Hints:
Elements: E1 8-14, E2 20-26, E3 33-37, H1 48-54, E4 59-63, H2 78-91, E5 98-101
Parallel strand pairs: 3-4, 3-5
Antiparallel strand pairs: 1-2, 2-4
Amino acid sequence: MPSSPTPTTNTFALIDDGVRLACQTGGPADAPPVLFINSLGTDRRMWEPQVAVLAGPFRTIRYDARGQSDVPPAPYSLERLGRDALAVLDSLGIERSHACGLPRA
Length: 105
């Protein structure tokens, strides 16, 4: 018997410079977190196959990075993108997380 899908929560992370990044979480809130970081030209939906499998044993966190989806494009530094990833985790009250991503270029 297939298990029922894990509910997801959509929210926004407010970043220190006022940018709002769309976020989506799934899985149990008390499970080990894993942050998914999408590649260039994609948004958080690229991780749907992985989240479908991992949202049971993990708390999954996906977000749309700057320059993707609703965030205006611009040249951003890797440092800025790294601070954004940390801000997403901070907005959810997560101190440590596994990370899964693809190269940005």
